[in-house]
Specification:
- The protein contains 10 helices and 9 strands.
- It has helices spanning about 55-60, 65-70, 120-135, 150-160, 180-190, 195, 200-210, 225-230, 230-240, 260-275; strands spanning about 1-10, 10-20, 25-35, 45-50, 75-80, 135-145, 165-170, 215-220, 245-250.
- It is an alpha/beta fold and about 280 residues long.
- The mean pLDDT is about 95.
């Protein structure tokens, strides 16, 4: 593991690291913000999963989380959104598949199977690396994300409730099986068997597995030009039917950008901090 950048910020430190990944078979980068409280004790941790075309850098520089994370004493890890450097033919042909678009799934189809394993990277390899190298309290971990990363956060939390004690999302892809983005990615990475897709659809998972953790927070911009891709109404209906507590907030005038995320990010951090104190 190698430090790429290191910047003091609100008495904590924002790092970017690189490391060799067995899951993705390439060098991966991630960001980690360590609040000042790590000098004295282990701290709770949030994983942030970014959306299409993003790297680890977007959230670090645009979301404005460091001040609040320092106040609350929370560490935040931000992985990249796909493998880089595998040089698979066609991986950079479109913005919504391949580079920057790993969709937080484990691919089963050639040629993607050889390294596009973002689900296992985010849920197994990266947590092990973080726990071995940083003062993190593994019993107080949450996850959140945006768009494709919101899909990742919801599906990962719903499948691993023993580890992720809190979950939220900004403008998530709520039903990947019924979204053009999701259909393209799931077909390419998993093939045409739609039964295999169900493991990566938040609406299906909330129906079939439920959620016994605290209330799920989802923020959605009413002027989001991708709203028809995201299907929040399907997730809301599934939560209501399964009696799962959901706070779905529709914000007039807001779009899909980091201007929207930075406006409401403090609400998410404070919610996670409260959930992880329990």
């Amino acid at each position: 593991m190698q430090i790429i950048t290191q910047n003091k910020c609100f008495d904590g430190v924002q790092f970017t690291y690189s490391h060799d990944s067995k899951e993705t078979r390439c060098t991966m980068r991630f960001g980690i913000y360590l609040p000042p409280q790590v000098k004295d004790k282990k701290v709770p941790l949030l994983y942030w999963l970014s959306g299409l075309t993003c790297t680890e850098e977007n959230f670090i520089t645009k979301a404005g989380v460091q001040r609040i994370a320092s106040e609350l004493g929370i560490a935040i890890v931000t992985p990249d959104t796909s493998p880089r450097g595998l040089n698979i033919p066609g991986e950079d042909a479109s913005y919504d598949f391949g580079l920057g678009a790993g969709f937080y799934v484990d691919a089963t189809q050639k040629p993607w199977v050889k390294g596009y394993r973002m689900y296992s990277y985010v849920t197994r390899e990266l947590p092990k690396l973080i726990e071995e190298n940083f003062p993190i309290d593994n019993n107080r971990v949450g996850i959140f994300g945006h768009s494709m990363g919101g899909h990742g956060a919801l599906t990962i939390a719903l499948k691993n409730p023993e580890y992720y004690k809190s979950v939220s999302a900004f403008a998530p892809i709520c039903s990947s099986m019924q979204s053009p983005w999701g259909e393209k990615a799931l077909t390419g990475y998993l093939g045409n068997n739609r039964d295999a897709w169900r493991e990566y659809d938040a609406t299906v998972l909330i129906t079939e597995r439920g959620w016994k953790g605290p209330m799920i927070l989802v923020d959605q911009g009413a002027q989001d030009r991708f709203l028809q891709q995201l299907k929040p109404e399907l997730f809301e209906a599934a939560c209501e039917k399964a009696n799962i507590p959901l706070n779905l907030r529709l914000h007039e005038g807001y779009d899909h950008s980091y201007f929207f995320i930075s406006t409401f990010i403090e609400d998410h951090l404070r919610m996670h901090a409260e959930n992880l104190r329990k």
